[in-house]
């Protein structure tokens, strides 16, 4: 007679379902675990350990699928019945507290020894002071005997030797007790710290997933299990590295690589996983911004105009691309992104990576490219009194370059770090590679005496800018020097550009550019004169 089948029995399964893929977002990560699984007939249960205890419960999901290459369809009844997470705190054996009674007894013994040493030190200090007083009285008595003509040198020498030997003995004993007292104090401090640590139980959080399956068939099925969930405490940022290759007789080129810097402290290690770097920002949500009342008021127009000078950056995402041999300028000043309707980007790591849950940064290569570069020496003396090596190159990759830091590498190794903004595929961009050590720059600004004509309501404020360059090397250098003049946005302030060296003129943004050929051990002095005309109604300048 056959034994009855227990339909409520749950079979325990054992399977490896490691982390296979992680999609990193701005401040969180989507973890996907995958593994092969044999599901027997009836109900079964699988427990996955070493799961991130900080996972978001409402994002936890699990599904079954046929193995890759298998034919047919998965029956609807063959499914994951439930998936749940259980968390607990575990105390490691090395974190368990020691015997507090023994620890406190040792501490009391050390405290008594410290008190005894302190008392002995006080006694020796008192005896030392008494001996010094006796020595002073003995010397006074010897002086009095000498004044009366008495001579007893052997007795005097014996008394002084005894007193000095006593002082030396007391000094040695005090030094020994002082060292002993310090050692006891250190031991007491250590015991106090150990007692304080032993009163609290050190533990760590752990989590495990419990999955239940239901297979209504009569035979076991080979399936693939997928479990995914969202975890906080993980993020990534783009990081780039550029290497300038300069070979004599050949055009310069830039070897550029994009990497993802990854941090995670989710509580589970990611071992040999495929990383996907995403620019999506789900934390922003879809709630529209609140509207505030904008109140308009009418006030009397004043007779004066308040004006202030400001520095304004000329924003461009790149230098344009190359289309039909002509350079395309970038007109937009806003960077594309999620907030302004840009398309979210997903970049896959070029190789699988291992990211421990220690909160340290790890860099994972994503893509790289090589592009020819146009190098030049540029000088903006108002910003930095040096001549900078600049390169211009195009983004030859199929992916955009995201805003982030760039490590600069030349033949001598790492030379510095800079940053770049969003650069689209095919877009040209610039990189600065640090100052040229053989070039010196000195800049002077001279504000000349203000001029005001009779019966005029305008004041002239002339200025003279002088830039001096020196070449300390025997080789000639081609340098691009930039200066700027003010640009007026109102009618009652005007700017006149006077004489400039080599007859150069300012552009619409107020920049004056010289292209110089500085010979070896040569010098050059550039001068720029410009005048600001200010009406009497203007205040603030």
TrEMBL record:
State the UniProt keywords alphabetically: Coiled coil
Chain ranges of the DUF4140 domain: 22-128
The residues forming a coiled coil are 153-197
- Per its UniProt entry, which superkingdom is the organism in? Bacteria
* InterPro entries assigned: CHP02231, DUF4139, DUF4140
* Keyword tRNA-binding carried by entry: no
- Record flagged with keyword Transcription: no
Instruction: Give the DUF4139 domain ranges.
Output: 225-532
Which Pfam families does the entry mention? DUF4139 (PF13598), DUF4140 (PF13600)
What is this protein called in UniProt?
Aspartate ammonia-lyase
Organism source for this protein? Enhygromyxa salina
């Amino acid at each position: 007679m056959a034994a009855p089948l227990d339909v409520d029995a749950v079979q325990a399964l054992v399977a490896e379902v490691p982390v296979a893929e992680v999609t990193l977002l701005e401040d969180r990560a989507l973890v996907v675990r995958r593994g092969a699984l044999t599901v027997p007939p009836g109900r079964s249960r699988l427990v996955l350990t070493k799961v991130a205890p900080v996972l978001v419960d409402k994002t936890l999901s699990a599904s079954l699928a046929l193995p890759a290459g298998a034919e047919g369809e998965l029956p609807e009844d063959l499914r994951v019945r439930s998936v749940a997470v259980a968390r607990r705190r575990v105390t490691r054996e090395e974190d368990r507290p020691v015997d507090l009674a023994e620890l406190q007894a040792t501490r009391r013994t050390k405290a008594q020894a410290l008190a005894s040493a302190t008392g002995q030190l006080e006694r020796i200090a008192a005896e030392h002071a008494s001996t010094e007083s006796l020595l002073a009285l003995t010397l006074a008595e010897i002086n009095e005997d000498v004044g009366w003509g008495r001579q007893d040198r052997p007795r005097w020498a014996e008394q002084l030797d005894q007193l000095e030997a006593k002082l030396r003995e007391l000094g040695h004993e005090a030094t020994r007790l002082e060292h002993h007292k310090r050692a006891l104090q250190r031991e007491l401090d250590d015991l106090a710290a150990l007692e304080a640590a032993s009163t609290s139980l050190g533990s760590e959080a752990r989590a495990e997933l419990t999955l239940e399956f239901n297979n209504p068939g009569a035979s076991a099925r080979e399936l693939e299990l997928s479990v995914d969930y969202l975890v906080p405490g993980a993020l990534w940022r783009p990081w780039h590295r550029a290497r300038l290759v300069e070979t004599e007789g050949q055009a310069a080129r830039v070897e550029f690589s994009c990497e993802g810097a990854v941090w995670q402290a989710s509580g589970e290690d990611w071992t040999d996983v495929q990383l996907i770097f995403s620019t999506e920002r789900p934390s922003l949500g879809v709630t529209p911004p609140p509207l505030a009342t904008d109140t308009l008021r009418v006030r009397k127009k004043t007779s004066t105009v308040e004006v202030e000078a400001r520095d304004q950056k000329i924003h461009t995402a790149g230098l344009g691309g190359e289309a039909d041999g002509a350079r395309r300028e970038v007109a937009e000043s806003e960077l594309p992104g999620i907030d302004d309707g840009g398309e979210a980007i997903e970049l896959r790591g070029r190789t699988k990576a291992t990211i421990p849950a220690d909160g340290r940064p790890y860099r994972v290569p994503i893509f790289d490219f090589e592009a020819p570069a146009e190098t030049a020496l540029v000088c903006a003396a108002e910003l930095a009194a040096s001549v900078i090596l600049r390169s211009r190159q195009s983004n030859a990759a199929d992916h955009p370059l995201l805003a982030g830091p760039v490590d600069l590498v030349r033949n001598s190794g790492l030379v510095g770090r800079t940053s770049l903004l969003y650069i689209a595929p095919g877009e040209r961009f610039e990189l600065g590679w640090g100052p040229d050590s053989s070039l010196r720059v000195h800049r002077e600004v001279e504000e000349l005496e203000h001029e005001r004509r009779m019966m005029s309501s305008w004041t002239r404020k002339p200025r003279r800018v002088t830039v001096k360059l020196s070449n300390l090397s025997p080789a000639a250098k081609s340098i691009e020097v930039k200066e700027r003049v003010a640009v007026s946005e109102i009618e009652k302030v005007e700017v006149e550009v006077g004489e400039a060296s080599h007859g150069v003129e300012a552009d619409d943004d107020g920049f004056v550019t010289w292209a110089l050929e500085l010979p070896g051990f040569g010098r050059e002095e550039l001068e720029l004169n410009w005048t600001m005309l200010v009406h009497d109604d203007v205040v603030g300048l």
